[in-house]
Amino acid sequence: MTTRNSSYDNVDGWGHPAFEVLDDYTMAVLLAGVTPPLADPMHVLLADNQNLPIYQVVGLDANKKLVKAVFGSVQAIGVMSRSAVSGAGNTTVKGNVYYSGCFNIDEKSVLVWDASYDTETKKAQAFIGAPTPCQIVARRRLAPTS
């Protein structure tokens, strides 16, 4: 069997291709691996007066509406796949949320975090305990093996 060398930017830690492209950003910087797989986004109603940018880490408020995740108070449940803005009394604007995937949290990461996630450890633990159907792993990309 022939060994083919690949650049770090084109493979994940297990040698799987990681050079797919989203409409807005290269997945090689967004994702850190292929398990769990990136799933199609689900649609969740935004809370009132929200301005959530693409790749914002989000959670649900007490009314089960979408807001940015805040360490210690709003559990992270997903990542915005598109930006979304809602007004007062919102009953129609929904956000598209990735609820499954292995997201990159290293210095090249494009994820948008609330300031309360001020350490890599907090980011890595952000999705632990998230309700079903959330299947998100947040970690650094693995170094290539030789």
Structure description:
The chain has two helices and nine strands, in the order H-E-E-E-E-E-E-E-E-H-E. It has helices at 27-30, 120-124, and strands at residues 42-45, 51-52, 57-60, 66-68, 76-80, 84-85, 94-98, 100-104, 135-139. A five-stranded antiparallel beta sheet has the order 1-7-5-3-4, with no helix packed on it. Strands 2-6 form a two-stranded antiparallel ribbon. A hairpin with a 5-residue loop joins strand 3 and strand 4. It starts with 26 loop residues before the first helix and ends in a 7-residue tail after the last strand.
Shape: globular
User: How much β-strand is present in the residues?
Assistant: 15-25%
SS summary, helix count: 2
Question: Which sheet architecture does the biggest sheet show?
Answer: 5 strands, antiparallel
In the predicted model, the low-confidence regions spanning at least 5 consecutive residues are 1-10
Write down the overall mean pLDDT.
85
Count the beta strands: 9
What order do the strands of the largest sheet run in, or round the barrel if closed? Answer: 1-7-5-3-4
What is the structural class?
Answer: mainly beta
Radius of gyration: 16 Å
Distance between the termini: 15 Å
- Proportion of helical residues: under 10%
List SSEs in N-to-C order.
Answer: HEEEEEEEEHE
